[in-house]
Amino acid sequence: MLTGRPSASPDPKYAVRRSSGRPLDRSGTAGLGARVDELTAGNQRRQNALEQAQARDGKPAGGLREARHDLVGALTSTRG
User: How far apart are CA 14 and CA 33, in angstroms?
Assistant: First the structure.
């Protein structure tokens, strides 16, 4: 856990600074901040895509349960 920062939305640059022990703006690491931002944005896009896929995958299961229930009801009524 990072201290001194809110845990709800930690700043990736802060985490890199903390773990490396050096500020990001020193020479040789100028592109590191931009790369962290790029990776964070890509991660967010993938997280959004995953959440959308999970929501989409959950819908057919509900329809399948309903169809199964209807089938069982129909079979029961024909036997009875």
Answer: 10
